[in-house]
UniProtKB/TrEMBL annotation:
Sequence similarity: Belongs to the mandelate racemase/muconate lactonizing enzyme family.
GO molecular function, one term: racemase and epimerase activity, acting on amino acids and derivatives
Keyword tags: Isomerase, Magnesium, Metal-binding
Lineage: Bacteria, Pseudomonadati, Gemmatimonadota, Gemmatimonadia, Gemmatimonadales
Identification of the protein by name: Dipeptide epimerase
Residues binding Mg(2+), per UniProt: D187, E213, D238
Keyword Magnesium (UniProt): yes
Amino acid sequence: MLKLATEIVPVHTTHPFVISRGGASEWRTVTVRVRDADGAEGWGEAAPSRFYGETPESVVAAVERFQDAIGDLDAWSLEEAEARMHRALRFNGAAKTGVSAALHDLAAKRAGLPLWKLWGLDPAKAPPSSFTIAIADDDAVLRARIAEAAQYPVLKVKLGSPRGLARDQQIIRIVREEAPDKVLRVDANAAWTAKGALEIGELLAALGVEFIEQPLPPHDLDGMRFVRDRSPLPVVADESCVMASDVPRLAGVVDGVNLKLAKCGGLREAMRLIATARSHGLLVMAGCMIETSLGITAAAHLAPLLDCADLDGAALLSDDPYAGATITGGAIRLPDGPGLGVTRR
């Protein structure tokens, strides 16, 4: 028997985190706890996004539904738990992931092993994580943010400024000027048109950007294909790729996919997404929302299976209540403790 519980946790970014859809300094995640009949407990995190139709309150309500769906299972019924949650609610990916991560934490704790070891993975194979430079209207603020990211060899630059393509061009020029030797990746968060993406793509290529993430709206796959076929840079889908079932239709449309646990609905589904993307010859990266180390550590356990990682959500916080995986200098380090290896600070 399993007992599920939730707690809404307010957290704050060190600076306002702004992307093309807006930004904030305060965020609310949801800690999910799963306790079995023997009193052993696993922890997971849901990082809801309104873009995907979720709020902290909807996560709490969804987890209450999941209590009825999976309460009679044990800690080892990981695949069945995700299947039942999916049958109970079609969407609600962040809520499902919170429960899934807690169940994986519980199962690995029961085994007395770190989750990565239970999975048979080698943490040394994890790629470096990028660090995100959010949109800034002020050049001095932008330069200060880049300076603060000095330890990170890979920067992910958010574009799609409300001031338009001209400001995006200014931003990427400033970033390259301040970080002449770093790997740069660009994420437009679906803010551009096909014409705009191709226009700025020439500049991005000239500045040595590695790839463009989600240049167009999620459902404009014809537009994404048009850009990918003409762009000097690879194109990676984020908002267009939610679950493993989305991957086949993206083959030939983009060059890679960005997995997020908060989108896909669980660690088992994440594994399926990775395997499906590999079978279609796509680059695989994992990203994150603004999350505490509880959520980031769950995602970081997938890192040895990835080509690229963007797992800086907790590094952007000023008040992370958990300790777990770290990305010091971009290097992803997984905990050695049982389960996810996460502790309260």
